[in-house]
Structure formats: C-alpha cells, structure tokens
Amino acid sequence: MDKRVHILKNRENMGFASAANLVLPHISSEYLLFLNPDCLISPDTLARFVKVMDSHPQAGMAGGLVRNLDGSEQAACRRAVPTPWRTLVRICHLDKLFPNSKRCQNFELHRQPLPAHPIEVEGISGACMFVRRSALEIVGPMDEAYFLHCEDLDWFMRFRAQQLSILFIPDIEVVHVKGVCSHRQPIRVLWYKHRGMVRFYRKFFRDEYPLLLFWSVIVVVWVRFAILAMGILMRR
C-alpha cells in the first residue's frame, strides 16, 4: 500500500457526517475531497478540482457533473436548496400544474442545459464535495446530528451564510453507482433521509414560514415516507 494512504477503520457505523469529521484532525492539505465509496473518478479529477478552485478564491466548495451508470445526470448533481415550499411544489407536482409560474419551480436543475463553464449554485451532490480547508475552518464540520442524508444540505446553507460560494463544474465528471451501499436496508435508509429532512427544515426554516404551512410540510414528509416504505414492503 502507498505510504501516503492512511486508513481509519471504525468498529461501527457512525453515520456519514461523524465518520467524515473523524479524519479532519489528521489532514493538513488545503483541499479535501468527500467522496462516497460508490463513486468512480478519473486519475486527473483532483488536479482539475484544484485548478478551478485556485481560480475561484471565494468558492468554499465545488462539485462535478455526477452521472448514473447509464450516463444520465443525477438529479441532485446541481440544485437549489429544497426549502419547505420547494419540496411541497415537487411532492404535489405544482411545477407541472403551473409550469410558467416562477413561484412553482422545482429545486432540481438537472433538466436545464449544462453550462459551458463553472457556475455558482445553491447545492451540489453530497456524493462528491471538494472543499477548501480554510473555508471549512470558518464554517465548521458537518453536523453529526444527521446520521445519513441532509448533512450536505446543512453544510450548503452554512457555507453560503458565510458568503462562500458553491461551484458546479460541468467538465469534471463523476460516476455514482447510487444505492449500491444501501440496498440491503432500504427502509432504514429511507427513514434517515426523511428524519434528516425534518431536522434540516426545523433548523433553518422554522421561523421563516407560517406555522400552519411549516407543519403541513412536515406532515407531508412523513406521509411520503410511509407511502414509500409501504411500497418497498409490498414489493418484497
């Protein structure tokens, strides 16, 4: 094994944020790559990330074009922050009912044409986050209260609150074999995803929405979890 490689092995599953934060005291480089184990990257990916970030000093983190195995772009690759209202729009398909309404826009941007150059976005894929260490020291590590899912959304909000931009780089491609690490426990993963979303909403948006609307969204989130979990059980 290459002497530059150091492996920290946990005895139990600590969750994504906790496990990622565990390595921070052992790293001194200017940049850090947070990469899911089910991702594939090219040999020059790191060098290309560094080049773009060096030319955008205000950027706190960057992500690339994350594709599925079939070559299609993953929905979370570039996105707006899924606020409670945007989530309600998506779940209720209001963007399809009112396609010309600016207020009823989906938070996913992958259906839009790819930009020709790196652009600033509200969110990238949490499967591949290239982070500037000096920015991380300002913002702080990921919130370990999220076990799985939504810790990346939390981080995006905190980076942008510190005026640190998030870049989407279309010519850096990553293949993400989505779900390969979680297919054995789909309902458990689904539970963590929806619980994380509720925490995310309560942390950042609880005081920004009318109480009735806010809690209606929370109810919709859990109803969605129940429907999806029931679908998984029926298929089994």
UniProtKB/TrEMBL annotation:
For this UniProt record, the keywords arranged alphabetically read as follows: Membrane, Transferase, Transmembrane, Transmembrane helix
Give the highest taxon in the source lineage: Bacteria
Q: Where is the signal peptide?
A: none
Location of the Glycosyltransferase 2-like domain: 2-95
Q: Annotated Gene Ontology MF terms?
A: transferase activity
Q: Transmembrane stretches, by residue range? A: 209-234
InterPro entries on file: Glyco_trans_2-like, Nucleotide-diphossugar_trans
Please give one Pfam family short name.
Glycos_transf_2
Q: What is this protein called?
A: Glycosyl transferase, group 2 family protein
Organism (species): Candidatus Thiomargarita nelsonii
Taxonomy of origin reads: Bacteria, Pseudomonadati, Pseudomonadota, Gammaproteobacteria, Thiotrichales
